[in-house]
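Researcher: Next entry: Fibronectin type-III domain-containing protein (Paenibacillus plantiphilus).
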Amino acid sequence: MDGVDSQVNLNWDTVTGATYYSVYLSTAQGMFTEPAAATVTDATYNISGLTNGTTYYFIVKAGNSGGLSAASNEAATTPAAVPAVPTSVRAIAGNGQATISFTSPTDNGGYAITSYEVTASSGSIVRSGASSPITVTGLTNGVSYTFTVKAINQVGSSRSSSASNAVTPSSPSNSGGNDSGSDNDDDRETAAPIADVLLNGQVIEAGAKTTIDLGNRMLTIVVDGTKLENRLAAEGQGAIITYRANTTFDRVVAEMDGQLVRSMIKKQAVITLKTNQAKYVLPVQQINIEALASQFGESVALQDIKLQHLL
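Model: Predicted structure:
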């Protein structure tokens, strides 16, 4: 008896005098009831439409005009298959490496997925991991790569996924350049691996942190309010603060607390949220932070009020 993808192949020894065989199926050991799952004349039977990962039990009875024999020995098997293909494969470049994220297949083939295998388009670099994301190292800076992913269970490997977006790893020293096509303050921006913050067109160290929601393909950029306020204090009125995403996401969010917004208002600052596809400009004076704070009452500090701007 063999169990393969969603089906089981049964075979048994013929019985002298038998004109047919009744095959019984159950998902509980030793629990077989009438009617039989099938009646066949040959000593073999293939049953399909089974659920991968479920153990099935079988017995066979030989029959002729005189009736049915006693039951055969009980046999059990679990049909299974390789997993389905991972989807939504995305790559983010780094220095000599790339981070690959993907969505696990809902169909695991009947057995738990034990690992995933990422292959670079060069074919010579393969990395394994237990879950998304997986970082592929050993890449050559300046070379463009795409990546495919396979899911693996105890039966074997899935087919390769569709290729990811193309990325080009680079070192921090040569990862950026001037945006010569820009007609605004961003002319001097220098690209960062995922996201960065600029003040009047210059990348600044403001403790920027990013949170990636892979399921929704969303990037959230958060800065250290105190660090940015200190830098902002040295600037003149009308400062331009740019939250910039350097990697493509479906949605990008700039998050800041109420205290930082108040400082921006005093400087008559302008917030810019920029991605590879679009740009959103917001004069901070349009945010009535005092009215917003009053809704929470005096017990809530301004730095505990979080504002998010979505692009």
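Model: Note for the record: The longest strand covers residues 56-64.
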